[in-house]
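Sample pair:
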Amino acid sequence: MTHETREPLVAGLLLAAGGGRRLGGRPKALLPHRGRPLVENAVRVLREGGCQVVHVVLGAAAERVRAEAELPGCVLVDNPDWAEGMGSSLRVGLGSLRAAPVRVDAALVSLVDQPGIGAAAVARVRGAYGGRDALAAASYDGKRGHPVLFGADRWAGIAAGAVGDRGARDYLAAHRDAITLVDCSDVAEPYDIDTEADLWHLE
């Protein structure tokens, strides 16, 4: 009888395909933050939170992102259907993790336009991994948010319901009782960079 001693692999999955429609068509991945493209900050947060493997889903201006952002060691995946919404990017990202040369046990999903969520929140949610059927999410004042953790055994079900801009929302609603909520209210702020009025959050 053999026992698996391998450390579970929780990979970071960054959704960074948005075109910034309400930002005048400026791709969110390339918004300047601390002198560099926003996507670099999001990748660094995942790495500092404990995700050694990071897959990044690109969409709007993907060629520019590849040229202008420094993302060494990341697996960059293009989503040609990014304009359909976050659901298509989630499907593409989970497919990329499934095809990875190493066995990935869970995906820790974050969004490029939430710079108020740092490595501490990532590490907390990552720590909620309890097996390949795990479901966990950060919560803020009792409300579910990002990042979210999906055990690999749940990817097929999540991908099947990931349409439009809903992402995994319907799946999570249907499996509410299985979700481990991880309070991150004290270490992160879950605001989005969606409109011109939100740009003041960037540094």
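The longest helix spans residues 86-98.
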